[in-house]
Amino acid sequence: xxxxxxxxPASPCTRTVTMxxxxxxxxxxxxxxxxxxGEHKLPEYIKKQxxxxxxxxxxxxxxxxxxxxxxxxxASKYANADTAILYPSDFQGRALVEQAASIExxxxxxxxxxxxxxxxxxxxFRGQPTDETRLQEHLSALNPKLDAYDKILDTQKYLTGxxxxxxxxxxxxxxxxxxxxxxxxxxESRPNVARWWKDIAARESWLAVKxxx
Amino acid sequence: MALKLCxxxxxxxxxxxxxxxxxxxxxxxxxxxxxxGGEHKTAEFTAAHxxxxxxxxxxxxxxxxxxxxxxxxxxxxxxxxxxxLIPTGPKEEALFEQxxxxxxxxxxxxxxxxxxxxxxKPYNVQxxxxxxxxxxLATLNVKLDAYDVLLGKQKYIGGNEYTLADIFRLAYGALALIxxxxxxxxESRPSVARWWKDISNRKAWLEVIEKGV
Lengths: 213, 213
Description:
Chain A: It catalyses: RX + glutathione = an S-substituted glutathione + a halide anion + H(+). Chain A: GO terms for molecular function: glutathione binding; glutathione transferase activity. Chain A: It is an enzyme of class 2 (transferase). Chain A: Belongs to the GST superfamily. Phi family. Chain A: Residues 1-82 form the GST N-terminal domain. The complex is a heterodimer. Chain A is an alpha+beta fold. Chain A is 57% helix and 8% strand. Chain A contains 10 helices and 4 strands; from the N terminus they run βαβαββαααααααα. Chain A has helices at 12-23, 43-48, 67-78, 91-126, 132-152, 166-169, 172-180, 185-188, 191-201, 204-209, and strands spanning 3-7, 28-32, 56-59, 62-65. In chain A, strands 2-1-3-4 form a 4-stranded mixed beta sheet, with helices on one face. In chain A, strand 1 (3-7), helix 1 (12-23) and strand 2 (28-32) form a beta-alpha-beta unit. In chain A, helix 1 runs parallel beside helix 3, helix 4 (91-126) packs antiparallel against helix 5 (132-152) and helix 4 (91-126) runs parallel beside helix 7 (172-180). Chain B has 9 helices and 4 strands; from the N terminus they run βαβαββααααααα. A 4-stranded mixed beta sheet of chain B has the order 2-1-3-4, covered by helices on one side. In chain B, helix 1 packs antiparallel against helix 6 (164-179). Chain B has 2 domains: 3-84, Glutaredoxin, CATH 3.40.30; 90-202, Up-down Bundle (Glutathione S-transferase Yfyf (Class Pi), Chain A, domain 2). Chain B is globular, with a radius of gyration of 18 Å. The chains are: A alpha+beta, B alpha+beta. Chains A and B meet through strand 4, helix 3, helix 4 and helix 5 of A and strand 4, helix 3, helix 4 and helix 5 of B.
């Protein structure tokens, strides 16, 4: 049975999962959940995903949600010799991916999500205006973090060293939204971050999903 | 001693790593980082830790930051027959990852938001903490309903065994909810209450609370 991804082509978290599938050359089928109609909050959806969020996968009956968990599972299960580098299994290599992935989840994502929410999600999906104070707070939190990223990327090509891994991949979908939100200068003003972003955003796997999952 | 844990005794993240070490029976030497004196902002510190945060470990020269990455590394490297804080087996490990990921998106932001409003910021009289705290609390309530469903079907966050997915919530749960006076959030939900009572009474955690890191 082909891997099923229950999500939405417009959703960044769905794109994270489908990008991983593309990196692994893993066939998949997207089952579209229309979040604008609240499909993700219906009882039959909640049975699969108790937090009412997208995406989740069904891998031959095995149901899993949380895009970062799904990415790790797929990379572990379906990697071959060429793609194992995405999520290495040696202790130190793995630890360095987890270090960078933790930075993404806790030092990058919260402020980026907040900023994108203010600029895009609230006006587009919730009929709410941008709260400029909150937006500035998110940007004030994000700026010093991006300075740290610039420092890390000064001496290495990717977040863990020479190779592109899941840790870099986790940044892509929301970084694209930051650009869409008119906040691309956050990256462009930092030479190493700009270089890294240009590189990872040009990956074939991202180009294949960035507009449609 | 081979493993140095560098952080602060009152830091939730330092405690998370300490609890992990104690669960695994991994000896460590605690090295205090002088936060009040700004040690974490010095050039020397940021050379190893560009985000100026604690804790980090130094294991015979291998340096790692991000408490969750550290805990994962230790859990993989020092797994014993009786102490599997990360399950083995692709599906079990995936469900563990799902449980860990829920925390970053569905628990941590509102828990730490609430803690910030109620525990860290109250002395700033110009800052309206009540609205933000109320927002965070409202979100927490919704999320904890979902947790109650999840924990009605399985014993722990990541499956039927105690894993890092449970440890990662402990320190923040204690800080946000108990110090903030919101124990009822846990106690009013039968499965969440059952789980919280279980994990907050684990020997390793009690040792960290009572004896320090």
